[in-house]
Design goal:
The protein is an alpha+beta fold and 79 residues long. The protein contains 1 helix and 4 strands. Strands 1, 2, 3 and 4 form a 4-stranded antiparallel beta sheet that branches. The protein is elongated, with a radius of gyration of 15 Å.
């Protein structure tokens, strides 16, 4: 089965909850082998911004990698 990886990050709102919902949504895909879903620990990194960026842009990112095996005919339909 093909293995795919998603790199996710968020620095707006409830980042930890947003990333948790991403794991839950991927686990619910019909054609995905649920047992293969792996969600990495969360990593917090500073935002990389151009000089003189507004102060409110200076929020750190919460990052995560999600990997899974999928059947070759998986199609993801956005809602």
């Amino acid at each position: 089965m093909p293995r795919i990886a998603f790199g996710l990050g968020s620095n707006i709102g409830e980042s930890v909850a947003t990333l948790a919902r991403s794991c839950t949504a991927l686990a619910a895909l019909e054609n995905m082998e649920a047992a293969s879903l792996r969600c990495s620990p969360l990593y917090h990194t500073p935002a990389l911004l151009p000089e003189n960026s507004p102060e409110w842009w200076q929020r750190p990112y919460t990052n995560q990698v999600i990997t899974l095996h999928t059947k070759p005919h998986l199609t993801i339909h956005p809602e």
